[in-house]
Design a protein that fits this description.
Blueprint: H1 41-57, H2 61-64, H3 72-75, H4 79-94, H5 96-105, H6 116-131, H7 136-149, H8 157-169, H9 171-178, H10 186-196, H11 198-207, E1 215-218, H12 222-229, E2 232-233, E3 239-240, E4 259-261, H13 268-271, E5 280-283, H14 290-297, E6 301-306, H15 309-322, E7 327-330, E8 342-348, H16 363-366, H17 369-386, E9 390-400, H18 409-418, E10 422-424, E11 445-447, E12 458-465
Parallel strand pairs: 5-6, 5-8, 6-7, 8-9
Antiparallel strand pairs: 1-3, 1-4, 2-3, 9-12, 10-12, 11-12
Helix pairs in contact: 1-4, 1-6, 4-6, 5-6, 5-9, 6-7, 6-8, 7-8, 10-11, 17-18
């Protein structure tokens, strides 16, 4: 790409690494002493701090954006500014490799060592200019003001101003240049390519840029509720809402417990248990209770386990709203020993959650290959214990929302190899009309975010004790 440095006088000095090219303007050298009097500045400061916490400290984004216990700077904002912060941070994380590539095109070298705070200011500014409906001049002005008021970044005010102004001038060229950059971290994208091939990996990468739909599991008559709520009925009977802005509890049917929010993919594992009416079924990692509700609705005698008392309270509240019942037990499932064995067990195991990037774009930035290996080992341990909770002929359905085969296909293969008294019950494509693409060659269910108009990435396998 042609740089406008070519039009500058020969006496212009070559910038140091991390310095903007000369002749591109300066920044504010003064300003009020507090950011509250600059409209929009507090939101940008909050967005920058939250982004830094995700990228540097691997902090969960959901926790920081919690309205009651989240980041104090975030909680101090108005409702409108909180929404802006969420939009900025989510956009920054969804497009981070492209944003960083764009910024690298505008600098002659890497930022100075220790300038991570400056990096986050630039990313927040660029995210607004490239991916949000924020006027360029506003994004630039607030980024410059933010740098000016931070002692760590004050000396880089002119750099921030020059880089972001040039981004505004050359936006069309830059957008074209970064369009094919995968939007996932290199380590994670490489694992997707290894597992699914280049074409599917690219589709998964692009799918996480599309905001996730809201899917509902309805207690009865999906067509009726699709009509009432302006949604569509999916092949499995879930109802997908159309464009929706507002609060879920305000929708018709919520208060009377006619439905609950549950992604299409997350609703699939319970169906793998078959007819469970009257059977004793354990849901081993039950909270917040979507699958527990499915089990109870299907007529099972459900025992729902979770090691968190707070999460179990939330589960019971959800079941009460739905008019459904399950016995609840606060316990670490690895230590659970029932008096009587169960007919069936559902283990929706804790995982890396890489299948939920559409909803949680921070996941692939807060986890790494070491985390995946640890979680896969834990899942294997949990599955082996789950198999002790059913007798001969008992069914165990294992599931999670990871895209990584080490947490799914590979772990299942290892458990089967170690346990000759356990067999896989292959899922049949004919039992999933309209969703045949989710049935793997070995008879497991595997969804990826590019399927069915956008779903969570999910893995499920059915095992039976001989």
């Amino acid at each position: 790409m042609t740089s406008d440095i070519q039009n500058k006088p020969a006496r212009s000095r070559k910038p140091r690494p991390g310095q903007a090219r000369p002749g591109q303007g300066g920044g504010r050298e003064d300003g009020p002493s507090s950011f509250e009097d600059k409209p929009g500045l507090a939101a940008r400061i909050a967005a920058t701090r939250i982004l830094a916490a995700v990228l540097e400290k691997k902090t969960s984004l959901d926790g920081m954006l919690d309205s009651e216990n989240g980041n104090p700077v975030y909680r101090a904002l108005s409702i409108a500014d909180r929404a802006l912060v969420r939009a900025i941070v989510n956009s920054a994380l969804r497009h981070l490799p492209r944003i960083e590539t764009a910024l690298s095109m505008l600098l002659d070298g890497p930022l100075p060592q220790g300038a991570r705070s400056l990096h986050h200011v630039l990313v927040v500014g660029a995210a607004q200019m490239l991916y949000l409906d924020v006027p360029d001049h506003s994004a630039v002005d607030l980024a410059v003001e933010q740098a000016h008021r931070d002692p760590r970044n004050k000396r880089f005010v002119k750099l921030v101003n020059a880089v972001l102004r040039r981004l505004g001038r050359e936006k069309a060229e830059i957008e074209q240049a970064i369009a094919d950059v995968p939007v996932l971290p290199d380590w994670f994208y490489a694992r997707l390519v290894s597992a699914y091939g280049n074409e599917v990996a690219q589709r998964i990468s692009e799918a996480q840029l599309t905001p996730s739909s809201i899917d509902l599991t309805v207690k009865a008559d999906p067509a009726l509720w699709a009509e009432k709520l302006g949604g569509t009925v999916l092949p499995n009977g879930s109802v997908r809402l159309g464009d929706f802005e507002g609060q879920i509890p305000s929708l018709e049917g919520f208060a009377e417990g006619a439905w609950w929010v549950q992604d299409l993919a997350a609703s699939m594992p319970v169906r793998l248990l078959g007819d469970i009416s009257g059977k004793r079924v354990a849901d081993l990692c039950a909270a917040p209770g979507g699958k527990t509700a499915q089990l109870a609705l299907a007529g099972a005698k459900v025992t729902a386990l979770d090691q968190s008392g707070n999460r179990l309270r939330r589960l019971r509240e959800n079941l009460d709203r739905l008019g459904l019942h399950a016995e609840t037990v606060e316990v670490n499932m690895l230590k659970y020993q029932p008096e009587l064995l169960f007919d069936a067990v559902l283990l929706d195991a804790p995982c890396s959650s890489t299948g939920t990037l559409r909803k949680h774009p921070d996941v692939c930035w807060t986890k790494d290959e070491t985390d995946i290996a640890k979680l896969a080992a834990l899942q294997g341990q949990m599955l082996r214990h789950s198999l002790t909770l059913v007798g001969s002929g008992g069914i165990v359905v294992f599931s999670n929302c990871s895209l990584d085969p080490s947490e799914g296909e590979e772990m299942i293969a290892q458990v089967l190899a170690e346990n000759p008294d356990v067999e896989r019950i292959a899922v049949r494509k004919e039992d999933w009309p309209g969703m045949e693409a989710a049935v793997s060659p070995k008879g497991d269910l595997r969804t990826t975010p590019d399927m069915f108009g956008g779903v969570d990435g999910f893995f499920s396998s059915v095992l039976r004790k001989k």
